[in-house]
Write a structure and sequence with these properties.
With 153 residues, the protein is an alpha+beta fold. It has three helices and seven strands, in the order αββββαβαββ. The chain is globular.
Length: 153
């Protein structure tokens, strides 16, 4: 099923990846009432895992591109949670983002803007959200990991 959100994605030159399978002992999402809580999605594209460490071998622009890929994976999981109908999305409520960073780096918010700006461009006001951006050491050397909270109908 292709709805208005996926049509807008296509206009933006994007498409949803397959919803990634969990990498350990957890579920990809949990729905409680009209909220969907999506487990952390690590940065990946068609070529595989996007690796990097802000302040070392990754700059803000590369990190923002990795964060955008996380946002696409979040939407893919949301589509699965909504039985294929992404247009059930009411709003993005909150993103919690982890950026693989050196201790000296303080540019995590600018990296996470890659996901935030993308969601606002895609969804307008319903894409505006609360957010945390934290420096961390991430599994498998992933550049970025983002979990999301979404309201659906």
């Amino acid at each position: 099923m292709t709805g208005r959100i996926e049509e807008r994605l296509a206009e933006m030159g994007e498409s949803l990846p397959d919803a990634p399978a969990p990498a350990a002992n957890y579920v990809p999402y949990v729905q409680s009432g009209n909220m969907v809580y999506i487990s952390g999605q690590i940065s990946a594209d068609a070529g595989g895992l996007i690796k990097g460490r802000l302040g070392d071998d990754m700059d803000v622009e590369q990190g923002a591109a990795a964060a955008r890929r996380c946002a696409l994976s979040l939407l893919a999981q949301l589509k699965a949670a909504c039985d294929g109908d992404l247009d059930r999305l009411v709003r993005v409520v909150k993103l919690t983002a982890f950026v693989n960073s050196t201790p000296e780096s303080g540019d995590q918010p600018f990296v996470v803007n890659g996901a935030s700006d993308f969601l606002v461009d895609l969804l307008g006001e319903s894409g505006r959200h609360a957010r945390s951006a934290v420096g961390a050491i991430l599994p498998l050397g992933a550049a970025v990991e983002i979990e999301g909270f979404f309201e659906i109908r």
